[in-house]
Amino acid sequence: MRAFGVQRSPRTILFGAGQRAALAHLVRPHGQRAMICTDSRFGADPLLSGMAASLRDAGLTVGVYDGTLAELPMSCIDEAAQAARDIRPDVIVAVGGGSCIDLGKLVAVRLTYDGPLSDLYGEFRVPDGVLPVIAVPTTSGTGSEVTPVAVLDDPGLGVKIGISSPNLIPHAAVCDPELTLSCPPGLTANTGADAMTHAIEAFTTLRRDPTPDLGVANVFVGSNVISHMQAATAIRCLAGHLERAVRDGSDPVAREQVMLGALLAGQAFGTAGTAAAHAIQYPVGACTHTPHGLGVALLLPYVMEFNRPDCVGIFADIARLFGLPDAPDDLLSRQAIDAVDGLFGRIGIPKSLAALGVREADLGTIAEQSLTARRLVKNNPRPLDLDGVRRIIAAAFEGNRDLLRS
């Protein structure tokens, strides 16, 4: 197949310790009024006060909304949008984890679009002219600081739903690993495992025929030469440093490499997309109210086991990125799944859906709802139908990958 690549990204990405000091230089060209979207955890952190003070010292009027809720319910978006109308910002500064950054994106949309957000569900439905967003992640996981996606919890649908458009990509991202030093071990594990899942799913998504309209008619185009390099580096960074960051959150090298891995994984899946682990997590998260990163990471080894017959060579490459000794591809492809499973187990990711609170009676509904995420299902490297989803879910419920081995 001919080489084909797509890159969509913020205009500016600043990465490195201390780069938060450049925030005012990025914000000031957009106007005189800024709104910071964050959550109560980081809102009380002196680092947030320092960033707000730097904006005020640069002559900006700054308002702060610190009520972001995990998994982003619609009520939170409505409340933040009303706060933004009172502040009348020229630019949104989203500081925090994925939910804070997604909230910043959606508030920027709500200030320029009068219709309901439900009109924008799917791809390419966000109009031009969205207020600029400067994203400052304080966790290393979602990659939302560079992606064209915002995910929210719609109570009417009873499930999380995504809005996908290049118009949602932040104008700039400031990725300062010092901002992650206060992340507790559990949050570091869940967000880092989320990043690894992004990287592996982007690395292994189905590669499509590069027709002239592939990159302009689809937000997510499948595996491509640019996303492949980004995902490979992300896997290597996370494989070597995630466990270190969980065990010692003060390790500056581990924090730096995990944040770099999350950033590159976000860039990779921002064009390649994700696949079955994400499709299944949405209904799992809806019925268990458990964190997104925890759910996708739990599911990933089972999805990999299902996909392995169609992914022997690329799974062998994943094993090499984990630093495993060279061996025949078939053996390495199995060892890659063991390596992912082992890493996640060591950082505290549960082994079974039952451990998350999924009931056996829920499995049929989860399987059917998983298939409604068509953009994710069609990305899976092995064709995925209802029977396949049921097999993955049954194995994950039991915590037994052997059920997927033929």
Textual characterization of the structure:
With 406 residues, the protein is an alpha/beta fold. It has 2 domains: 12-180, Rossmann fold, CATH 3.40.50.1970; 185-404, Up-down Bundle (Dehydroquinate synthase-like, alpha domain). 50% of the residues lie in helices and 11% in strands. The chain is built from 17 helices and 9 strands. It has helices at 23-27, 40-43, 46-57, 74-87, 98-110, 185-204, 214-217, 225-247, 252-272, 276-288, 292-307, 312-321, 329-346, 353-356, 363-370, 374-377, 386-398; strands spanning 12-15, 33-37, 61-65, 91-96, 122-123, 133-137, 149-154, 159-164, 172-175. The chain has a 6-stranded parallel beta sheet with strand order 1-9-6-4-2-3, sandwiched between helices. A 3-stranded mixed beta sheet has the order 5-8-7. Strand 7 (149-154) and strand 8 (159-164) form a beta hairpin. Helix 6 (185-204) runs antiparallel to helix 8 (225-247), helix 6 runs parallel beside helix 9 and helix 15 packs across helix 17.
